[in-house]
Design brief:
Length: about 130
């Protein structure tokens, strides 16, 4: 998923244990931990969502691979993705998701960019480029 050696993955996960290594995202209830992906154009990060948070409707510019490490979410199609489950979103696919109320959801993500498509957040797209 990430273009990192096992040693680099262990190092990044150890670094993720410190709260100050995580950044607040513009969306309430979301924190991000940026990972050095080792591949140009690939965004690699850990995402930590608070229970009940919704991630708005968005389109994937390229393929996205995601592995849930803790917690669970349900997407627009009604598919529930739980800890240990992975999913892959094709380029140009579009969806939104909601974190289940049972606890925090942490996911490892490798992606090539997203674009918000919902009416209220389209303006945020230019901030993310």
């Amino acid at each position: 998923m990430w273009s990192l050696s096992p040693e680099q993955v262990r190092s990044e996960l150890a670094r993720a244990q410190t709260r100050r290594a995580w950044s607040r995202a513009p969306l309430p209830g979301l924190r991000t931990f940026e990972v050095a992906a080792g591949e140009p154009g690939l965004g690699a990060r850990l995402l930590s969502f608070e229970p009940g948070v919704s991630f708005p409707k968005h389109r994937h510019r390229g393929e996205e691979q995601l592995l849930v490490l803790e917690g669970a979410f349900v997407d627009t199609l009604g598919v529930t993705v739980r800890a240990g489950d992975g999913c892959c979103m094709a380029p140009e696919s579009e969806h939104e998701l909601r974190i289940l109320d049972e606890g925090r959801c942490v996911a490892a993500v490798a992606e090539r960019g997203i674009e918000f498509t919902g009416p209220l957040l389209r303006f945020a797209n230019w901030l993310m480029r």
